Amino acid sequence: MKTHNISLNDNNTIPFNNNVDFCVGTGRMGLALQSEYLKQLELCQKYIGFKHIRGHGLFCDDMAIYQKRTDRVTGEVTIEYNFTYIDMVMDSYIERGLEPFLELGFMPYAMASGEQTIFYWKGNTTPPADYEEWKKMIQALLRHLMARYGADRVVTWPVEVWNEPNLPGFWYKADMDEYFKLFTESFYAVKAVDSRFRVGGPAVCGGTDEKWIKAFMTYCHDNKIPVDFITRHHYTTELPEPKGHYGYAELQDDEAGFANLKTTRDIIDSFPEYKGREIHITEFNTSYIPNCPIHDTNQNAAYIAKQLSRLGDGNESYSYWTFGDIFEEQGVPFTPFHGGFGLVANGCIPKPTFWTFAFFKALKEKDCVCVHRDDFSVIVKCYDGAYRGVLFNRVNKRGDTGTVSVDIDFAVSGEYTLLTKRVDEESCNPLKVWHDLGEPSYPSKDQVELLKMSAWPEIQTEILKKADVKIDLQENAVVYFELNPRTFTPDCGYDYNRVIQVK
User: Fold this and answer.
1) Per the residue annotation, which of 99, 103, 160, 164 is the catalytic one?
2) What burial class does residue 282 get, using C-beta atoms within 10 Å of its C-beta: 0-12 exposed, 13-18 middle, 19+ buried?
3) pLDDT of residue 228
4) Residue 74: is its pLDDT beyond 90?
5) By CB count within 10 A, which of 118, 148, 296, 401 is most buried?
6) CA of 35: how far to CAs of 42, 106, 126, in Å?
7) Cβ count near 449 (within 10 Å)
8) Minimal CA–CA distance to 380: which of 408, 350, 400?
9) Long-range CB pairs of 327-333, under 8 A, 24+ apart, other chains included
10) Residue 31 to residue 40: CA distance in whole angstroms
11) Which helix (H) or strand (E) holds 415?
12) What is the tens place of the pLDDT at every residue in 294-335?
């Protein structure tokens, strides 16, 4: 067993931008009309509490915003806007404590210049046939939202132009010049409604991200566009190997991923007028496909823990893709554990990665400062003298590291209560329980309840006379701890040792 020693120095203040709760991803927005979707979202909000939500399909035909009506007698064509469904979706988000992070896309069929679509639900990914109609639609939607929810509120909703235009499936021929036109027209259309709106892009994914970010910043510089923030995506697996309904992917070296992110920061900062401009990672996960079994595992939870410990370095926010498994890019999934992106499996079963987010959110719940951060841990000290931390032992391959014993010297005296919440392959692994049950595609209600019970962290408490803490981490474990000063206030006549028959 390896030992990892930590000696805390309370005088240390470690920079740590813990923005774990700023935003979370969803599938297309029309999915918010389903009850299971909302149940999964409510679970996330109860234990994590995200502030924003971002998804595709704002202008897709299932949302029905853009309408062309032809008069049967005169043949005259009238453009209309229908906000019935978007109001339902936005109401459901706001009722659950979320504000939208608006992604402008995809193209309404009646406005599209071509036939190209993507995904099971056929989102059109061609430029508008008429940019004036595109701008009018954006402005009509924003004005409607401002009238419904209040202008001062809606202008705080970030606006992102399109999604992954550097991929030809998401933007016809990955035409960079055409995307820059779309961005410019959209940027000024939004600002014409209210200059307080913040607009960003180009929402690129990996592969050609460095090329696109550099070209985008050069374009903004040359055309004096005061872009408010930059967006990109971050996925960290190799190319998947397809088999049946699934794609199996190996994790990339996380340090290479962090280095790739830094190239975006360096490019932006090389332009004096944009130096320090916010970067929002509007999608991240391990694999970029919605049928990769790694998403359901404890390995994913531990790997993402290290991501959360570092993604705030140079980035304003980072949005996990996605909160739940009501998701249909490749069609309706066949089983509850199908490698979906979500933190929550269908049936409202939390996956191990769900708790990684809940644990990091708990580091923000009090007025705390980070006093330690390394490859196994993040530890904060709170105003009341308590400590909180997340420990993790992520491995790329089973057997790489083995169990790691983390030994923490807090250098404080007195009596403390140590609380731990453990997520590892023995204590919180609904995937294993599902497998042991025979991998039912359509589990019964009793089986779903069993899977939910198996998806909760193991909780332990201990009284410490000296605040030296030792916590063992199996491979792919994520453990949250609190170390709180203990005040003992027994009731008159109550003898705990007598109750539990300790002599």
Assistant:
1) 164
2) buried
3) 98
4) no
5) 296
6) 11, 24, 31
7) 13
8) 408
9) 327/27, 327/31, 327/290, 328/27, 328/28, 328/31, 328/119, 328/120, 328/121, 329/27, 329/119, 329/120, 329/121, 329/290, 330/119, 330/120, 330/289, 330/290, 330/291, 331/120, 332/120, 333/291
10) 12
11) strand 404-423
12) 999 999 999 999 999 999 999 999 999 999 999 999 999 999
Take residue 192 and report the two structure tokens written for it.
Answer: 């014409």
Rounded to whole angstroms, the Cα distance separating 356 from 332 reads 26
Residue with tokens 């997520």: 423
Mean pLDDT of the chain: 95
Q: Which residue is listed with tokens 């992102």?
A: 160
Taking only Cα atoms into account, the Rg of the chain, rounded to an integer number of angstroms, comes to 25
Q: Which residues on adjacent β-strands are paired with residue 463?
A: 417
Separation of first and last alpha carbons in the chain: 35
Tell me the three state secondary structure of residue 466.
strand
Our answer to whether residue 283 is catalytic in this structure is yes
pLDDT (average), residues 383-404: 89
Q: Is residue 164 among the annotated active site residues?
A: yes
List beta partners, residue 201. Answer: 230
Two tokens at 401?
């590291």
Task: Say if CB 361 and CB 51 are below 8 A apart.
Answer: no
pLDDT at 461 (0 to 100): 97
pLDDT tens digits for range 57-66: 999 999 999 9
Which tokens is 491 given?
Answer: 């009731």
DSSP state of 490: P
Which one of the listed residues 103, 283, 425, 475 is annotated catalytic?
283
**Angle at 294 (CA atoms; ends 261, 440), nearest 5 degrees:** 155
Residue 391: pLDDT above 90?
A: yes
Cβ atoms within 10 Å of 115's Cβ, excluding its own: 10
Spell 78-103 as b/e; 16+ CB within 10 A means b: eeeeebebbeebbebbeebebbbbbb
Beta-bridge mates of residue 440: none
Specify burial of residue 351 (Cβ count, 10 A radius: 0-12, 13-18, 19+).
Answer: buried
Per residue in 435-481, pLDDT tens? 999 999 999 999 999 999 999 999 999 999 877 899 999 999 999 99
* pLDDT, tens digit, 9 for 90 and up, residues 163-202: 999 999 999 999 999 999 999 999 999 999 999 999 999 9
